[in-house]
């Protein structure tokens, strides 16, 4: 098996233009929306608003893909919408949450992974794909969480 990472989609890359005020706010507008729907943050998809939080959103989608071995959009459903069992208040009182998590995980792993780490990774990914960009994690938080898992 070839385990070398392959990054693609650079044909979609283009520079943003923004005013000094937008740079200070860490937010800017894009007139032409490009990218694959499953990775695009709602604020970028619907309003053309770009920020580092757009990248955090895409990173969360990639984490879900890595965990599940599924595409970002499958059978008309976005992967990030299939994790509603991960309650915002934690997993307490969420019946069958761990079984649903096992069902989400890549079957080729044959359940040979620490379930606690899988849960932490799933909650981390969910924190990255929150609808409201103000409630999404920042990359510093993501790196700290990943370093604890690894």
UniProtKB/TrEMBL annotation:
Taxonomic lineage from the root: Eukaryota, Viridiplantae, Streptophyta, Embryophyta, Tracheophyta
InterPro entries: Kinase-like_dom_sf, Plant_RLK_LysM, Prot_kinase_dom, Ser-Thr/Tyr_kinase_cat_dom
Cross-referenced Pfam families: PK_Tyr_Ser-Thr
Protein's name according to its UniProt entry: Protein kinase domain-containing protein
PANTHER family linked to this entry: FAMILY PROTEIN _ PEPTIDOGLYCAN-BINDING LYSM DOMAIN-CONTAINING PROTEIN, PUTATIVE-RELATED, LYSM-DOMAIN RECEPTOR-LIKE KINASE-RELATED
Source taxon at top rank: Eukaryota
GO terms of molecular function: ATP binding; protein kinase activity
Record-linked Gene3D superfamilies: Transferase(Phosphotransferase) domain 1 (1.10.510.10)
Stretches assigned to the Protein kinase domain: 1-149
Listed SUPFAM superfamilies: Protein kinase-like (PK-like)
């Amino acid at each position: 098996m070839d385990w070398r990472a392959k990054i693609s989609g650079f044909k979609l890359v283009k520079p943003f233009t923004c005013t000094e005020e937008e740079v200070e706010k860490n937010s800017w507008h894009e007139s032409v929306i490009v990218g694959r729907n499953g990775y695009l943050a709602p604020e970028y998809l619907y309003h053309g608003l770009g920020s580092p939080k757009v990248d955090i959103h895409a990173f969360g989608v990639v984490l879900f893909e890595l965990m599940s071995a599924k595409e970002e959009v499958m059978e008309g459903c976005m992967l990030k919408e299939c994790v509603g069992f991960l309650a915002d208040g934690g997993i307490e009182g969420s019946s069958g949450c761990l079984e649903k998590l096992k069902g989400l995980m890549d079957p080729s792993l044959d359940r040979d992974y620490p379930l606690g780490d899988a849960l932490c990774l799933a909650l981390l990914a969910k924190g990255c794909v929150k609808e409201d960009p103000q409630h999404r994690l920042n990359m510093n938080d993501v790196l700290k969480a990943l370093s604890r898992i690894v």
